[in-house]
């Protein structure tokens, strides 16, 4: 079976790219074609060979999508680019959101929190550099697994969906992954649907979609804030994007150091003046000593030649 | 409403494998996590729990010669995440809605979810309403009659479980699987000639969900 199928699929695969890279065809149409192509391949395989079929599909998906990537990902003509920019701005304007507002199940300031979040941030950013949908998906899975580990070690019990989602929202905010919207759309369009529907990767991807949807629509109540407080933070974020969390303490430190330097300068100035005074005083003193000696010498000339012994 | 997503696998051979997606809904403290952990790992409040997570679990079953791969998706149940529900439900074959029999509010929440699920997935989805913590029967605040009558009125089945005492859980999942197989078979027959078309033709998760499934079935079902 396997050998009979391979040449056919290979010939289809090799003829695919020309058809899929045509700029006249819309991305959605291309996605439809690719999906029905996946579908055709599954038809060749009976049910008991499902494992081989899935493996083959994975490889074909990787091959095809790597080849046609540039002609279907984040095109200028599509709305995706606009949406990417919008999402990027939105996440940037929410840089003040703290772990506490999102009720993360991680101990605040703990090593687990920092490690888990920063590793998952890296994985989310990495997604944009991959080409095949399955490789992008495994970045999302990696991000979630880092989060699971830190949740488990903080809570000492298995992570739930609420735990995962709140952490993933926070990581997404911190990562602000490049071309996030385009990546999600691309995966939805071109990934093998079986993966997205029931597989573990599909679960993590769904959570990322939830995180993005939450970020897009979040308001004061979603973060447990009052309306005016939320407004103030949103307005403030434009001016002081970097002044949140760690940024604040750094700025305070700089201010403090500046004050210390000014004081030091002042003290050095006085020291310098006093030193000058001291110098002058010393000069005056040596001069006065010389004058005094001169005076004494002139007053008592050295006539020690003949001490008159007789007069004692 | 298009195919029950996972109606699963094709082929007309006698050994079929069904893949089902089941979403798990319930407020934070109703014990839904304990329920699935009990079912998939047979653990309850284990001090030595090594399971990393209880949000995505799988289980393989064999029911009368039919193989079933069950994927159980926990959903974020906190109020602030309420609007995200539909993103999780998409393409699911079954839903387990858990409430705590000592907590009237948790039962009200279940009612809200039922409405939402029916609106989105119609009658394709098999609903199970589960009253958990029957070991606390003395503190019951949701009457059996009321719960069962409600379940019947919305075309759902009602179950009583105790994750602590491991009661009713096997039955719940077994029953759900049988119902999902039936639904998938009806679905296949309705489609007639194309048994292996089920599932695969549909696109997976859609991010924008204004019109659930309306356009996603698209032209792929050329068969």
Please give a structural write-up.
The complex is a heterodimer of chains A (312) and B (223). Chain A has 312 residues and is mainly α. Chain A has two domains: 1-72; 79-270, VPS9 domain (Glutathione S-transferase Yfyf (Class Pi), Chain A, domain 2). Chain A has helices at 2-20, 27-44, 50-72, 80-93, 111-126, 133-155, 161-175, 180-190, 193-198, 200-217, 227-239, 246-299. In chain A, helix 4 (80-93) crosses helix 8. The relative contact order of chain A is 0.08. The mean pLDDT of chain A is 86. Chain B has 223 residues and is α/β, with parallel strands linked by helices. Helix content of chain B is 30%, strand content 20%. Chain B has five helices and six strands. Chain B has a six-stranded mixed beta sheet with strand order 2-3-1-4-5-6, sandwiched between helices. The longest helix of chain B is centred in the C-terminal third of the chain and has 23 residues, at 169-191. Chain B is globular and about 50 Å long. In chain B, 48% of the residues are buried. Mean pLDDT of chain B is 81; it is low at 1-14 and 194-223.
